Amino acid sequence: AHRDFKSKNVLLKSNLTACIADFGLALRFEAGKSPGDTHGQVGTRRYMAPEVLEGAINFQRDAFLRIDMYAVGLVLWELASRCKAADGPLDEYMLPFEEEVGQHPSLEDMQEVVVHKKLRPILRECWLKHTGLVALCETIEECWDHEAEARLSAGCVEERVVQMQRQTSVTAPEEIVTVVTMVTNVDYPPKESSL
Q1: Angle 162-165-169 (CA atoms, 0-180°, nearest 5)?
Q2: Which of 70, 126, 128, 187 has the fewest CB atoms below 10 angstroms from its CB?
Q3: What is the CATH number of the domain that holds 12?
Q4: The pTM is what?
Q5: Is 189 inside any structural domain?
């Protein structure tokens, strides 16, 4: 389990392959062995699953994996928020929950928004109408479900992404690089701390 999955910890290679980074809080689970320090409330507050924010963690392998999948949902939302749907605007980059809690939320801020109000970042109407984004939106919602047991597994998300890739008619790779470069080649001020 990674335990600090967030967009800042996903790096892109020159061929646009994503790589997960920063395994400083990761736990390795091996049969018959203790995973080590399983302190529950670790990671970046903004990406903490409801059960982590509540301090109600089951210290089993599957529970930690579900916590990571909640964060995957938020990172996928960040990706969707940088896609230009045919009839929708491309808004300024925002962190998940930035509108509700600002750039440096307290644990209490996140508990109020995620646990008590059960809010999630907004899935824009134009995304839900866009054939290329609707399946991604469904996946996002199933990753960040309030109930940990209802969240998708990493394997299921991978299958869906592969299926989305197959269904999307992709033109030349050079065009993709150009589009990604146009969106990512902007100097954004740092918006995130490890808080």
Answers
A1: 155
A2: 187
A3: 1.10.510.10
A4: 0.82
A5: no
